[in-house]
Amino acid sequence: MRLISGRRLLSPRGSGTRPTTSRVREAVMNIVRPRLLDCRWLDLCSGSGVMACEAIERGARSVTAVEKDPRCASICERNLMEVAQSGSRRADVTVVKRDLMIWLQQDWRQEGFDLIYFDPPYDGGLYSKTLSLLANQEWLRPDGLLICEHPSDQPLDPGGQWTVMDRRRYGSSSLVMISRPERCRRDGTDSRQPRTDPEA
C-alpha cells in the first residue's frame, strides 16, 4: 500500500480489512485541505492507519487512531510512527487498541477533535451506535467535521443529532460529511446543498 505521495506503508495480510481506495483518500484530503494544518485528527476503525498517515503528511499536529484488531493496530502504530517522525514537523501519535464502542463510552474530558474519519466494516452495524456516542460528548469541536465512509448502495442517515454538510460518491464508496447542529445555527453553513457528483 502506498500513500498519495508514494510512500510505502505496511498492510495487514488477508482480506479482513478494506483499505480506503486512493481515489477516496485523495478526495478526502482535497476536501479537508484548509483544515489539516495543526489539526487534531481522530481515526475510527483505522485499520492500517492510511488515512491518518495522509493527514500527518499534510500537517496534522495530533492523531489518535482506534483499532480493536491487535494485528492491524500494531501495523497502524508502526505506519503512523514512521510517517510522524519522517517530516520536519513531528505529529503526536496515539493508537488505541480497544473496541470502539467501549472506548467511546468513556467520560471524555480532553480537547475535542477538528476532524474525525469513520470508516467501519460496512456490514458491522456500527454507524448508528457510533454516531450516537460521538454526539453525546464533546468528541468533535463545534467547528469540526466528521467524515463517514459508507457503501454507495446503502445511504447513510446520520440522524437528528447531526447536520449533513455534504455528500460525495466515488463508485462503490461514498462519503457523508456532517457537523454538530450548533455550528450551522451560528454560521449558516447548512444552507449549502449537499453534492452528489463524483468530483472532489
From TrEMBL:
Entry annotated with the keyword Cell membrane: no
UniProt-listed SUPFAM superfamilies: S-adenosyl-L-methionine-dependent methyltransferases
GO terms for biological process, alphabetical: rRNA methylation
Renumbered residue ranges of the record's region Disordered: 181-200
Record keyword Methyltransferase present: yes
Superkingdom of the organism of origin: Bacteria
Entry keywords, A to Z: Methyltransferase, Transferase
Gene Ontology molecular function: methyltransferase activity; nucleic acid binding
CDD domains reported in the protein's UniProt record: AdoMet_MTases
PANTHER family: METHYLTRANSFERASE (PTHR43542:SF1)
Name by which UniProt lists this protein: 16S rRNA (Guanine(966)-N(2))-methyltransferase RsmD
Protein species of origin: Parasynechococcus marenigrum (strain WH8102)
